[in-house]
Design a protein that fits this description.
Helices cover 35% and strands 14% of the residues. By secondary structure, it is an alpha/beta fold. It has a single domain, classed as Rossmann fold (3-Layer(aba) Sandwich), CATH 3.40.50. It has an 8-stranded mixed beta sheet with strand order 1-2-4-3-5-6-7-8, with helices on both faces. The chain is globular.
């Protein structure tokens, strides 16, 4: 059956706006122009993984994708690895979209897999890595960001045998993980690029909307303490509604949804899609993992160059708080860039639109290039 032009147009709007508002893209299509067609997938299983809470899993599965091949210098150390960390609710696959991979992973582009070994892991509780919906439900260990970074380090060093990173990029939740990496493993990466976060504990409005999201799930009678047989639809609808606002980009949404009918139709389609793919326990764990995040105490111990970028239309990390400008002064080799809100930015989701900030990545790679013989 042929699809009308208007329906095709709306589908394009749905995809474009959804990319702006989701904390991490739900779907990602590999684009050969971005070099993503040659990605490889695998799993690394960590035996008896112990969480910070004291809980353990007899086997922790860590899924990953890679592009390119590792290269070792004259001293046998890997010198071309790039680790890219995804946002809440996403996966390594989230970066295999044209707006990211198509801008960075193509031949001759900044992160050309012909030159770099790109590592895209799925964090604990995300993608195809171990998560509550695998079967443990609410009995899954209550992981936090420290656990996730610990697992990432094990995957990189033991699973992939990479002993050094040329670059670490973190987006959204991955941005927060990047700060933890910078403090915990100060000599492991030549440079870091955190995108869309703040290196302080999650408080104020940012903590409030997360609390509301988690409370919506826990207070739904159908949740049954995590042992539901069908998804708690009421809690998930409220959670999805909060996600819509938290990830919204006002300029992009006004352009894409210029009438009330367009906005109403988008909300309906958005809710149908989100409810069909969300798992209540997975979502609850993903947001609860940020509960004790706070790298602010050790920012002055970071030694690697840091290029930190936020967007002025970011609801989650509003620039008017002045936190970024205050905290970057404590990072020895740090630079903070605030991208002005425009028809090119996408709110919190700007971190996935590489064309908007790739010039700063180019600067970071050039300024952090290891000296010959080092």
């Amino acid at each position: 059956m042929a699809i009308s032009g208007s329906r095709c147009a709306f589908a394009r709007v749905l995809c474009a706006v959804a990319a702006c508002i989701c904390l991490a893209p739900r779907t990602a299509l590999a684009d050969p122009r971005g070099g993503a067609a040659n990605s490889k997938e695998g799993n690394y299983v960590v035996p008896t993984f112990q969480f910070a809470s004291g809980e353990t899993l007899p086997e922790l599965r860590l899924h990953y994708r890679t592009l390119g091949s590792p290269h070792r210098d004259a001293h046998g150390r890997v010198d071309n690895a790039v680790l890219i960390l995804h946002g809440t609710g996403g996966s390594g696959h989230s970066f295999l979209v044209d707006r990211f991979a198509g801008v960075l992973f193509g031949k001759g582009q900044l992160l050309d897999p012909g030159r770099y070994y790109v590592i895209l892991p799925d964090g604990i509780g995300h993608g195809e890595s171990s998560k509550p919906s695998d079967g443990l439900h609410a009995h899954f260990p209550r992981y936090d960001y420290d656990d996730m970074v610990n697992a990432q380090h094990l995957l990189v060093t033991q699973g992939l045998q990479v002993d050094h990173l040329r670059l670490l990029i973190g987006a959204s939740m991955g941005c927060m993980h990047a700060w933890i990496w910078a403090e915990r493993y100060p000599d492991f990466a030549d440079a870091l690029m955190p995108l869309a976060c703040l290196p302080v504990q999650i408080a104020g409005r940012n903590r409030a909307w997360r609390d509301l999201l988690m409370d919506a799930i826990r207070s739904d009678p159908a949740w049954l303490q995590g042992e539901y047989r069908t998804e708690p639809a009421s809690g998930l609808r409220t959670a999805a509604s909060i996600l819509l606002i938290a990830g919204s980009a006002p300029i992009q949404m006004q352009i894409a949804l210029p009438t009330r009918d367009a906005a109403d139709e988008f909300v309906q389609k958005y809710m149908e899609r989100e409810i069909s793919v969300l798992d209540a326990n997975d979502l609850l764990y993903q947001f609860n993992a940020s509960r004790n995040y706070d790298p602010s105490g050790d920012l002055d111990k970071i030694t690697a160059p840091v290029m930190w970028i936020n967007s002025a239309d970011d609801f989650v990390n509003p620039p008017e708080l002045g936190i970024a400008e205050r905290e970057i002064k404590r990072v020895k080799h740090g630079r903070f860039v605030l991208l002005p809100a425009s028809d090119q930015t996408h709110g919190y989701g700007t971190h996935t639109w590489a064309a908007v900030w790739q010039q700063y990545l180019k600067e970071l790679l050039a300024s952090s290039e290891p000296k010959a013989g080092s």
